[in-house]
Amino acid sequence: MYREIYRLQTSPEDGPLAINFKNRGQTIGRVDVSEPASISSGIAERYATAIFEISKENKSLKNLEANLTDLAQSLNDSADLRAVITSPVISRADQGVAIAALGKKMGLVPELLNGLGLMAEKRRLFVLPQLVARLNAMIADEKGEVTADVTSAQALSDAQVKKLAKTLKANVGKDVKINATVDESLIGGLVVKVGSKMIDTSIASRLNSLQNAMKEVG
Q: Residue 116, SS3?
């Protein structure tokens, strides 16, 4: 049985919120895609902190990490899932049913499952990508690793991920965990973020730079 009740303040309009991890809860939700990035990051930070702390106490970080890998892959592969967490027209109840079903199918640990349930209830599922990234960063830090957020025009192969991790390790001096996402608008290349450092090698970035230079000449 889980004994702890964690209270989160997601935003002024939400008021104090309690996550009760004694039982696996039902999930409900909605999305507000107009939230500024800074607010989204703050919301994700609070939920991630609660989930991480309870998982650490219950010695389930390893299972949580595996869950996050699967969840990130689902977010990357499934347009339907992305629609569920970002559509303002999908009801809380329908979002809740979808997340509960996904959580059951993926075998999510109770800490994560209940956290997603509360996010759904308070219409905060739109920060799910940020939540996954923040939890991965927390787990990496706990293990003495650093997390690199890598965006590419096409999905990276396992061999490419390993090579990139090895290259980054040589630069940062720590083991690097790759958090990979796909953005076809990049055309080619990579955008790599390690902490506050951004490395942009994408073709789209080079084209934009060239276009800006041409404007200055004109």
A: helix
Distances (CA, A) of 186 to 144, 160, 199, 200: 31, 17, 13, 10
**Tens digit of pLDDT for each residue in 130-165?**
999 899 889 988 988 888 888 988 888 889 999 999
> Rounded to an integer, what distance in angstroms lies between the CA atom of residue 161 and that of residue 119?
31
Residues 175-194 have pLDDT tens digits of: 888 888 888 888 888 899 88
Cβ density class 30-46: b for 16+ within 10 Å, e for less: bbeeebeeeebebbbbb
Q: Is the Cβ–Cβ distance between 201 and 153 less than 8 Å?
A: no
**1-12 as b/e: b if 16+ CB within 10 A:** ebeeebebebee
**Residue at token pair 């329908």:** 94
- Domains defined for the chain, CATH in brackets: 5-139 (no CATH), 145-217 (3.40.30)
Residue 19 is classified by DSSP as E
Q: Judge whether 125 and 99 are in contact, CB under 8 Å.
A: yes
- Rounded (5°) CA angle 11-134-71: 105
Specify burial of residue 168 (Cβ count, 10 A radius: 0-12, 13-18, 19+): buried
Report the largest interatomic distance among the alpha carbons of the chain, rounded to a whole angstrom: 69
pTM, to two decimals: 0.64
